[in-house]
Amino acid sequence: MVAAVLTQVNVWVDVIFTTIYPIILIALACHFLGNVLTGRAYRRFVKWEWPQHEGGPIPAAPKVMHFEHVAAMILLALSGMYIRFPQFGARPALQWIHYVAMIVVIVNLVMRLWYAFASNRRDWREFAVTGRDITTAPKVILYYIFVKSSKPHLGKYNVMQKSTYIIFVPLLIVQAITGLVLLTQPIPFLGLSPREVMLGYTIAPLVGGVAVAGAWARTMHYLINWLFIVLTTIHVYLSVTEDFPAFLDFFGLGGGHPEEDDEAVAHGAPLPIPQAGLAPAGAAAPAAIPTMAAPVAAVAIPTMAAPVTASAVPMAAAPAPATVAQPMPLVPDQPMPMSPAQPMPTAPPTAPPPQPEPE
Questions:
Q1: I want to staple 333 with a disulfide (CB 3.0 to 4.6 A). Which of 79, 244, 276, 286 is the partner?
Q2: Tell me, what DSSP letter sits at residue 11?
Q3: Positive or negative: CA dihedral 108, 110, 112, 115
């Protein structure tokens, strides 16, 4: 009974994914045609346009781990399919290739999680999906289906890239576990296989034995392998067609990351703040600083005393009209110059108090 059910499940997995995957390939080909017709392909492959998202060059360690992961995943997918369909031949050699690539992926996953959460250059925040990512997700989707000409850029990765990376982690963990339980070779000095150690005291008693549990694990392993093939195909296609110069630079194949100044302007980063008292080159003169009152025209204003100047002024002279200058444009952080119409008032000199004459 269990064997019949497992056979039916495997048949349905084969039918579903061997139907879906060609459809995905055709859809991606049509999408690339849309890139050509809209000019996106010309900008990426001819004008060498870099992706418009924030973030500087990626350090070397993530690049190396990503390259190892991609290479090992391709080997796992191809060798896994050959193992699943033994009529292709060369199964023993492909099994060893599959095992070596599996170890590379497991070690690489552990190292990447350590780098993201515990290293001095931890970068897990770059992959965290925020509330703004969720609200802008429809705009990203509209961009990919050619409804919008640009997509929002809130960080180094958009919400679809972040979601893909987040989904990969639990899938890799489950795939590693289901792959290890398929090993039936005895462990040296233990006499038990990894399947017996991992399933014999956990799932096997619940499903009817180690063999049945191993068969279900093999089906789950095969299903996740198809999911990785689909997700990796879409991921590689979008990386090449949307971020081609960055794609080449990421794998050390050329391209070169743009200079920081050019990158800041191209990616929409804020311009540097000018120093005190200096306006940016080519910037327009700053506007006049608004005042609480409107400018007052020059009118005669009676005063209690005439302003004192360098020349002698009779005390009985008529008051001099005071004028108020128009507000002047200011350069930031510069003191306001005094207007010639506003002389600085000075206090009149005072005579010393009279001293008593000696008797």
A1: 276
A2: H
A3: negative
